[in-house]
Amino acid sequence: MAQQEREYEAEVRVESQSRWIKTTVRARTQYDAKGLFEAQYGKDKIRNMRELPRR
């Protein structure tokens, strides 16, 4: 059976604005979500990642 995508939220550091913003991604696992955040924002620019409850 195919695994469902879930939404994950994290705070990411935006250096151009010198602040943290909340953003979400859709991924199958928390590991995949972390990879997406790191690919887009950089390894040390992520904090407070969590899975959002299903709607």
**Uncertain parts:** none
Residue-averaged pLDDT: 91
Strand order of the largest sheet: 2-1-3
Largest sheet properties: 3 strands, antiparallel
How would you explain this protein's 3D organization?
- With 55 residues, this protein is an alpha+beta fold.
- The protein contains one helix and three strands.
- Strands 2-1-3 form a three-stranded antiparallel beta sheet, covered by helices on one side.
- Strand 1 (6-14) and strand 2 form a beta hairpin.
- It is elongated, with a radius of gyration of 12 Å.
Question: Key features?
Answer:
55 residues; single chain; three-stranded antiparallel sheet; alpha+beta
Topology:
Elements: E1 6-14, E2 19-27, H1 30-41, E3 46-51
